[in-house]
Amino acid sequence: MLLGELGVFASYAFAPLSLIVPLSAVSVIASAIIGIIFIKEKWKPKDFLRRYILSFVGCGLAIVGTYLLVTFAPNSHEKMTGENIIRHLVSWPFLLYMLVEIILFCLLLYFYKERNANNIVVILLLVALLGSMTVVTVKAVAGMLVLSIQGNLQLDYPIFYVMLVCMVATAIYQAAFLGQASQMYDSSLIASVGYILSTTVAITAGAIFYLDFLGEDVLHVCMFALGCLIAFLGVFLITRNRKKAIPFEPYISMDAMPGMQNMHDKGMTVQPDLKASFSYGALENNDNISEIYAPATLPIMQEEHGSRSASGVPYRVLEHTKKE
User: Fold this and answer.
1) Beta bridge partners of 300
2) Bridge partner list, 316
3) In sequence order, what are the beta bridge partners of 317?
4) Distance between alpha carbon 149 and the CA centroid of its chain, in Å?
5) What SS3 class is residue 270?
6) In sequence order, what DSSP letters do the residues of 292-321 get, joined into one string?
7) In terms of pTM, does the model score above 0.90?
8) Which candidate, 211, 234, 152, 216, places its Cα nearest to that of 17?
9) What are 276-319's pLDDT values in tens digits?
10) Nearby residues of 129 by Cβ (< 8 Å), 6 or more positions away
11) H or E element, residue 128
């Protein structure tokens, strides 16, 4: 994972942001194929086809979408010098975009924290907005590092450290919101919805900050958008085919337990008592049940021994009739 993330980090210095971000669909395709191989589940051919048909269709669509993305992606890429980054940072389109994003982020955060709006779209939109700033700053930091390694030192620009701090901060808060979403929703749903929202917002941020589509003709832009839509559909179908987790049952059904007496025939139902705590197989308060299942008392009489040296048991059990 570390090597893969380092490779993705380095790729931002050599290619447009709008091309790299949607290519994360490749990891979803690889995960689906490798997952089928390593799970090693035994399926009959008919069951296997029924189980994984959506995954195969999704992989095919994701591959087609990836091909369109690579073919019609923007080709313009400028060097990430300190002057260029500052120029993009103070441009009025990006300042307007930042204003809209900050307002939207604050509104979503207010509804999420104060109004308990725990919808997955709200949470993953917060992640996507933070992620768009993460990829913008990652491209700036990676580009300036590569230029510095090549001999054109860029580390003496304060904007480098500003971008580095923003990159780390947005990545941390992004991971925090993702962790909260994973506690409430299934990982496959988070993967599909998160990929769609994060990719859309990140491409928009890259197009505004780095002017990725400047000078591109309408045909290339439309084909690029079509490739994104096909990749979105493919990822959705791949993640749609996951097994759903079995929800937790607060009590055990007494009828489902083998060898257990069924009391429904006598009108005495077995129900869970959920008023105080989870109880398994608790019985309703019923006078008939208390009479039938009242514990038998065993009368015990203590014997008086006149001598301490007397041996024998200190008590004896009286015999009583069946009626008693």
Assistant:
1) 317
2) 301
3) 300
4) 37
5) strand
6) HTPPPP--EEEPP-S-TT--S-SEEEPP--
7) no
8) 211
9) 444 444 444 444 544 444 555 555 555 444 444 444 555 555 55
10) 101, 104, 105, 108, 201
11) helix 120-149
